[in-house]
Amino acid sequence: RGVSKAYDVAAGKFLALKNVDMKVGAGEFVAVVGKSGSGKSTLINMITGIDSPTSGEIFVASTPVHDLDQEQLAVWRGRNVGVVFQFFQLLPTLTVAENIILPMDFCGVIPARERKERAFALLEKVGIVEQADKLPSDLSGGQQQRAAIARALANDPPIIVADEPTGNLDSHTSDAVMQLFSELAAEGKTVVMVTHERDLTRFFTRSITLADGAIIRSGNE
């Protein structure tokens, strides 16, 4: 509600978001679209608490994310939000399964004895269980993105936020990854995705269009 974000730059203040109001319901699969520099990544960084607003309020479920300190944010994010990045961000020295177990170790939501089994079940869900003991560098881009989605699901968060998750994938792999996100939304997860790829709009329940830090369109266009 009324979220603005200003950054200090050499020329003064740059307003990345301008008084943004946005509401996303449980189980929606929402696209955030707009040209480069329109504020898309800043907006989702607000939702995940990676960045904080200059003014305005952010409630995720009933949690006032804008009021949490860094320590509280880390705990809240670990339990409530799964983040999927464009460049996967898998840790290169850990196996795929270890990458997925790590968030479980941090949060302690999943009992220790169940973590390995859960990691393998999630890899099964995303279709790459046979890659569990490999290092990320041994996987294709599409397989790494699937591993990153499995990692985002590690602590069974209600919200998945993805920033250009298909930006480095070919169209066939991209469609398969999008289908996976669609299935997660159908299961009740709330999925918010930044994308610049218009041909993916068939997967979304709704699109929100940003321009110059403001929402200019929100609906089923």
Topology:
Elements: E1 3-9, E2 12-20, E3 29-33, H1 40-48, E4 59-60, E5 63-64, H2 70-80, E6 81-84, H3 96-107, H4 115-125, H5 141-152, E7 159-163, H6 171-186, E8 190-194, E9 206-211, E10 214-219
Parallel strand pairs: 3-8, 3-9, 6-7, 7-8
Antiparallel strand pairs: 1-2, 4-5, 9-10
Helix pairs in contact: 3-4, 3-5, 4-5
What report would you give on this structure?
By secondary structure, the protein is of the alpha/beta class. Helices cover 32% and strands 23% of the residues. It is built from 6 helices and 10 strands. The strands form 3 sheets. A 6-stranded mixed β-sheet has the order 6-7-8-3-9-10, with helices on both faces. Strands 1-2 form a two-stranded antiparallel sheet. Strands 4-5 form a two-stranded antiparallel sheet. The chain is globular and about 50 Å long. The two termini are 23 Å apart.
Summarize the model shown.
With 221 residues, the protein is of the alpha/beta class.
Please count the beta strands (DSSP E, at least 2 residues each). Answer: 10
Distance between the termini: 23 Å
Major beta sheet, specifics?
A: 6 strands, mixed
Q: Report the order of strands and helices.
A: EEEHEEHEHHHEHEEE
The overall pLDDT, averaged over residues, is 89
Q: Judging from the principal axes of the Cα atoms, what is the shape?
A: globular
- Radius of gyration, Cα only, in angstroms? 17 Å
Beta-strand fraction estimate = 15-25%
| Count of helical regions | 6
Structural class, judged by helices and strands?
Answer: alpha/beta
pLDDT < 50 stretches = none
